[in-house]
From TrEMBL:
<dbReference type="InterPro" id="IPR004364">
    <property type="entry name" value="Aa-tRNA-synt_II"/>
</dbReference>
<dbReference type="InterPro" id="IPR045864">
    <property type="entry name" value="aa-tRNA-synth_II/BPL/LPL"/>
</dbReference>
<dbReference type="GO" id="GO:0003723">
    <property type="term" value="F:RNA binding"/>
</dbReference>
<keyword id="KW-0067">ATP-binding</keyword>
<dbReference type="GO" id="GO:0005524">
    <property type="term" value="F:ATP binding"/>
</dbReference>
<keyword id="KW-0547">Nucleotide-binding</keyword>
<dbReference type="InterPro" id="IPR012340">
    <property type="entry name" value="NA-bd_OB-fold"/>
</dbReference>
<dbReference type="GO" id="GO:0006422">
    <property type="term" value="P:aspartyl-tRNA aminoacylation"/>
</dbReference>
<feature type="domain" description="Aminoacyl-transfer RNA synthetases class-II family profile">
    <location>
        <begin position="238"/>
        <end position="535"/>
    </location>
</feature>
<comment type="similarity">
    <text>Belongs to the class-II aminoacyl-tRNA synthetase family. Type 2 subfamily.</text>
</comment>
<dbReference type="GO" id="GO:0017101">
    <property type="term" value="C:aminoacyl-tRNA synthetase multienzyme complex"/>
</dbReference>
<dbReference type="InterPro" id="IPR006195">
    <property type="entry name" value="aa-tRNA-synth_II"/>
</dbReference>
<keyword id="KW-0030">Aminoacyl-tRNA synthetase</keyword>
<protein>
    <recommendedName>
        <fullName>aspartate--tRNA ligase</fullName>
        <ecNumber>6.1.1.12</ecNumber>
    </recommendedName>
</protein>
<dbReference type="GO" id="GO:0004815">
    <property type="term" value="F:aspartate-tRNA ligase activity"/>
</dbReference>
<dbReference type="InterPro" id="IPR004523">
    <property type="entry name" value="Asp-tRNA_synthase_2"/>
</dbReference>
<keyword id="KW-0436">Ligase</keyword>
Length: 543
């Protein structure tokens, strides 16, 4: 080949290479032009609909009274709020304003996204799509990018889909036209509420199917309790707890009781023993009250006749069990006795039957939510509560081959076994055991008239576990001082208590119950930390 031919061939190759380079550059310029045009279109579209979505500004969140302070303020100024739990088919084709958390988001395309909004355990599916008036692609993108657990406000039309909606409590859908982020959650959370809401059965079923779902353990839940209590089950638990406290108050007020508030800083131990939280009180030794016992009795001395209290109780025992806390909410009662200490048990009977009936009637949704994550059988109880003497209980255990000290207290295993025997024989999981041995009761407990080894006292059980302790009190001051000394208590530390009985006091008795334990056993939850909002046990003092 001649040098001239070689030059021509190289020239052709260079020309082709140059042409390809120019074509590539042309395509890049064309793509850039298209992108620029699209960007311009997006900006134009965003400018058109930007008032329909976005982050709520800080000035608007400062309780600004101006209705035109911002897009969010303008949007919600003339609307009423609708709770997510109230979104039903009766609201079809009505425009609503809701607030809730971003439970999940699911982008379908650039033109459509779903967001599930959760409020107080109730969830609703919201559709954000460009075919709705005022909804842009940028709005769809904004919604799809929302972090879980962020607080949002949404305005839209209620629609009823033809097919049932899976995964939400409300069987309606909101076609959103405006949506604002009130407060952003961080992108990555310590625990996901969805994970924390799963039952053990769901996790095991997924494992059998070859999928491994996250299991949130107890300590992790308690470390990030503010997230954990957002689950439907926990929302149910603490609403049930609220109802327990409400019925406790309502019933006792209807029976002529007066609510009192006693001090939690005291000079001596209220129950005896060393399991108290000691502290310095302006240079004097003091402790946190283990019980309102002494002061509620003093209220009876003050002629209130019948009193109750709802308040904190402190126990310093190193009890690492499923049912003990170092701080819990005590429900305490004290009342004048006219003739017999059974009058106190009568109040217990009617109070708790009323409470259980109310929970079953008024907390159905909450009980259902709890049962979905923590399955349990409804509590069995009688309209008239079963009463057994301690001696009868011991005999039932002996007949079943369980040996117990007839003058000792029942341990946890014996209590559970007796609960099982009572259920089998009497078909109830709620009963009263009375006339306990005097040696296992506090110093202020009145001995039985016919046998000084026993006392006018009682415990109450749910599902084989003790929840209530009560008794007739010693109201004769000399005998009270004698009993205190016998139990190793320095009478000088309770002198004001003993002296209050020197001014005349009627026979009286009462009982105390832990709020958290009632809810734990009613719902068969197995661990009292589930029913304490922020538990305090020997190893936990935060959050």
């Amino acid at each position: 080949m001649s040098s001239e031919s070689e030059e021509q061939q190289l020239s052709k190759k260079a020309a082709k290479k140059e042409a390809a380079k120019l074509e590539k550059m042309r395509r890049r310029q064309e793509a850039a032009a298209l992108a620029s045009a699209a960007s311009s279109l997006s900006v134009e579209e965003e400018d058109s609909y930007s008032s329909n979505y976005g982050d709520v500004t800080l000035p608007e969140l400062k309780s600004c009274s101006k209705p035109d302070a911002g897009n969010w303020s303008i949007a919600i100024s003339s609307m009423d709020w609708t709770r997510v739990g109230a979104l039903t088919q009766e609201l079809k084709e009505k425009e609503v304003l809701i607030r809730g958390r971003v439970h999940t988001t699911r982008p379908v395309s650039k033109n459509m996204a779903f967001v599930v909004v959760r409020e107080r355990g109730f969830t609703v599916q919201c559709l954000v799509a460009t075919h709705e008036a005022g909804v842009s692609r940028q709005m769809v993108k904004f919604v799809a990018a929302l972090n879980r657990e962020s607080i949002i406000d949404a305005i839209g039309m209620v629609s009823v889909p033809g097919n049932p909606i899976k995964g939400t409590t409300q069987q309606v859908e909101i076609h959103v036209r405006k949506l604002y982020c009130v407060n952003k959650a961080m992108p990555t959370l310590p625990i996901n509420v969805e994970d924390a809401a799963r039952s053990d059965a769901e996790i095991e079923a997924a494992l059998q199917a070859g999928d491994k779902l996250p299991r949130v353990n107890q300590d992790t839940r308690l470390n990030f309790r503010v997230l954990d209590i957002r689950t439907p089950a926990n929302q149910g638990i603490f609403r049930i707890q609220c109802q327990v406290g409400t019925i406790f108050r309502q019933f006792l007020l209807s029976e002529g009781f007066v609510e009192i508030h006693t001090p939690k800083l005291i000079a001596g131990s209220s129950e005896g023993g060393s399991a108290v939280f000691k502290l310095d009180y302006k240079g004097q030794p003091a402790c946190l009250a283990q019980s309102p016992q002494l002061h509620k009795q003093m209220a009876i001395c003050g002629d209130f006749g019948r009193v109750f209290e709802v308040g904190p109780v402190f126990r310093a025992e190193d009890s690492y069990t499923h049912r003990h806390l170092c701080e819990f909410t005590g429900l305490d009662v004290e009342m004048e006795i006219k003739k017999h200490y059974s009058e106190v048990m009568d109040i217990v009977d009617r109070l708790f039957v009323t409470m259980f009936d109310s929970l079953n009637e008024k907390c159905r949704k909450e009980l259902e939510a709890v049962g979905k994550q923590y399955p349990f059988e409804p509590l069995k109880y009688k309209p008239k509560t079963l009463r057994l003497t301690f001696e009868e209980g011991v005999q039932m255990l002996k007949d079943a081959g369980v040996e117990v000290d007839p003058l000792g207290d029942l341990n946890t295993e014996a209590e559970r076994k007796l609960g099982q025997l009572v259920l089998e024989k009497y078909d109830t999981e709620f009963y009263i055991l009375h006339r306990y041995p005097l040696g296992v009761r506090p110093f202020y407990t009145m001995p039985c008239y016919d046998n000084a080894l026993y006392s006018n006292s009682f415990d109450v059980f749910i599902r084989g576990e003790e929840i209530i302790s009560g008794a007739q009190r010693v109201h004769v001051p000399e005998f009270l001082a004698e009993r205190a000394q016998a139990c190793g208590i320095d009478v000088n530390t309770i002198s004001t208590y003993v002296d209050s009985f020197r001014y005349g006091v009627p026979p009286h008795g009462g009982f105390g119950v832990g709020l958290e334990r009632v809810v734990m056993l009613f719902c068969a939850l197995g661990n009292i930390r589930k029913t304490s909002l922020y538990p305090r046990d020997p190893q936990r003092i935060a959050p």
